[in-house]
Write a structure and sequence with these properties.
By secondary structure, the protein is mostly helical. The protein has 22 helices and 4 strands. The protein has a two-stranded antiparallel sheet with strand order 1-2. The protein has a two-stranded antiparallel sheet with strand order 3-4. Helix 9 crosses helix 22 and helix 15 packs antiparallel against helix 18. The protein is globular. The two termini are about 25 Å apart.
């Protein structure tokens, strides 16, 4: 995932103006009737204001100060992610947000926008984005501090928490040494992947969910704090505020995702029925006995290894360092050099380190970094390609633009690029070229690999629908039975059974509710756009067949397209125009639905509701 230091300045759009004092002059008895263009007191014409000059001065001041604060916060977060110590990160993020709570500065920005008719487009766009940076933060300092501290407290728990599991293999203990029964996420996931005993799998799964009980009440309290702040700023709740600030129309987004559900209902059901039969055979149980812990991933957001193919077989002789080297070579081969980024990044597990993965730009200049916890398997190969996708996007944004514009066109566009590259870990030509997988073996498994890729896409899409709808409901009513709601949505969208008599905050074990609130829908929009990009390349390359068979190996034109059509422009234009400029069409679910459908089905057409959702964006 892309680490967002703050969503204040990323892919957002202006809302209704904050209410301020009415500064209009009462003209009832002060207007110069003889010459209304003159000041009623001095009898002189008012001096003409140079709005362009004022705008240039404000942008210079803002870009300098915001860039400095942003860098301090980014460095502090990086250190916190490596050590688990978040005090400095809290202080610097608060300083960044506090700067964006200055009502006087906000009023200047609004005044400039009212007088921006003669401004160039970059200045207009920059002012709009600056406005949004303030829009969410024109709050008292104490309230901002509460929000930041509450979030960082939960982040610290996630960073340092280790789940409990008593059934793990034990090493021989030294005299006086106590047995270990708590483990990192990577360790627990590794246990789950290998374990075939249903009861033990359940215990491991519960260990992965333990953190939910530790942070659940804190997350509810944070949701209420966020809601209170959003309401003070004129929004219905925090969810609606964030959605609108990301340049999305809430109703149209709901419509788009409801329609995507309908488009994927049939293929998802068919896929899951086949998957369940495989898992039932694997665990020697009936399909009716399958429970969430039988699907390898604790949230069923990724596909379990197929009975027909397990791509980890191609990593048996690989070291964790090889994953980095492979990604480095590939990106060089398509003319998206990432050597400098790779050198300054952190890739391997260590005590206290954030257990997940992200990419961040420290200064929106040349300091881009990635954090991962690599192991030699397909999951971390995908993740390495994914994060490097974010990284090269950052790297090749035009540095001649002002600091505010040096961001991805939108949150979901950088996710799309990352997903585009991550998917290459299952791409047929890529496997033989960069993993050096035996060609005969890959050819034999080709159909199964494509089938597994489709499974991944469907599973992730349906999982994201759970996150999207749960988070919306969470902020609409934080006091409802969230534990029950979670499993209601899991049953509806993922077709999983809820554990009997379980009433724990399983939902809260997902860190995104804290570190990237109201964000997950952008992953799914990223998937839609990634599919649209693949369709664009297939068309230009004359490729027929599944996108997983497109040969991107050593194609410098791929890097050229990415730099010219996607990366360079930063945030200069609204994402709707950006997508159309890059692919020739508005964002659509049609390309994604086409990728995941049964090959024998007719081509997928966007429904009226999808077209309506895309209209005008």
């Amino acid at each position: 995932m892309k680490k967002i230091l703050s969503t204040l300045l990323i892919g957002t759009v202006a809302l209704v103006s904050c209410t301020g004092k009415d500064n209009k002059v009462d003209t009832a008895d002060k207007t110069n009737v003889k010459n209304p263009d003159k000041d009623p007191v001095t009898e002189k014409a008012p001096e003409k204001i140079d709005w362009k000059k004022k705008a240039a001065e404000l942008l210079t001041e803002y870009n300098s100060k915001a860039a400095s604060l942003y860098k301090e916060a980014a460095l502090a977060y990086w250190d916190a992610a490596l050590t688990g110590k978040f005090d400095k990160a809290s202080e610097t993020e608060l300083a960044f947000r506090k700067y964006h709570s200055d009502k006087a500065m906000f009023d200047k920005v609004m005044e400039l926008q009212k007088n921006s008719a003669d401004f160039d487009e970059d200045t207009k766009r920059t002012l709009k984005l600056i406005e949004l940076g303030y829009r969410e933060n024109v709050l008292p300092t104490e309230e901002l501090k509460k929000l930041v501290n509450a979030s960082k407290e939960i982040e610290k728990i996630f960073s340092t928490f280790r789940g409990k599991y008593d059934g793990a293999p034990r090493k021989k203990l030294k005299k006086g040494e106590k047995p270990v029964n708590t483990f990192s996420n990577n360790e627990l996931l590794s246990f789950l992947k290998k374990e075939t005993n249903t009861l033990k799998r359940q215990k491991i799964w519960e260990g992965l969910k333990d953190v939910g009980e530790a942070v659940g009440p804190k997350l509810v309290a944070l949701a209420k704090l966020r809601n209170d702040a959003a309401k003070k700023l004129g929004f219905k709740d925090f969810w609606h505020m964030r959605i609108v600030l990301q340049e999305h129309d809430p109703d149209k987004l709901v419509t788009l995702f409801d329609d995507l559900q309908k488009l994927t209902d049939a293929p998802f059901k068919a896929m899951k029925d086949a998957l369940d039969k495989e898992l039932a055979r694997k665990f020697r149980i009936k399909t009716a006995q399958l429970m969430p812990w039988h699907y390898d991933n604790p949230f069923f957001q990724e596909a379990p290894p197929s009975a027909k193919v397990n791509l980890d077989e191609f990593f048996k002789n690989k070291k964790k360092e090889d994953i980095v080297a492979i990604a480095k070579t590939f990106f060089n081969d398509i003319d998206l050099n990432a050597d400098d980024i790779i050198e300054r990044s952190d890739y391997y597990e260590k005590p206290g380190k954030d257990q997940h993965a992200f990419c961040t730009t420290i200064d929106r200049e040349n300091d881009v970094r990635m954090l991962l916890n690599i192991r030699p398997n397909v999951y971390w190969m995908d993740t390495m390609l994914h994060e490097t996708g974010h990284a090269v996007y950052y790297k090749y944004i035009d540095r001649n633009m002002n600091w505010t514009l040096r961001e991805a066109a939108h949150i979901f566009t950088t996710e799309a690029v990352a997903m585009f590259f991550g998917a290459l870990s299952k791409n047929i030509p890529w496997l033989t070229e960069y993993l050096k997988a035996p060609k005969a073996r890959v050819k034999k498994l080709e159909k199964a690999i494509i089938e597994q890729r489709i499974r991944e896409q469907l599973i992730f899409a349906r999982w994201t629908l759970v996150m999207f709808n749960f988070e919306k409901a969470l902020y609409e009513n934080p006091d409802q039975d969230l534990n029950k709601l979670w499993w209601d949505l899991v049953e509806k969208y993922q077709f999983l059974k809820r554990p009997v008599k379980r009433n724990k905050a399983d939902w809260a074990s997902k860190p995104h509710f804290t570190i990237a609130p109201v964000y997950y829908h952008n992953y799914l929009m990223g998937e839609l756009f990634a599919a649209q990009l693949r369709a664009t390349f297939a068309k230009t390359m004359g490729h027929k067949g599944h996108p997983g068979q497109i040969d991107f190996n050593k194609k410098k034109e791929v890097g050229k397209f990415m730099k010219e059509k996607l990366f360079t422009s930063g945030m200069k234009v609204h994402w709707g125009a950006f997508v159309k400029n890059a692919t020739g069409e508005e964002l659509s679910s049609r390309f994604f639905a086409e990728e995941v459908k049964n090959p024998d089905e007719k081509p997928v057409k966007a429904t009226k509701t999808v077209k309506k959702a895309n209209k005008g964006k």
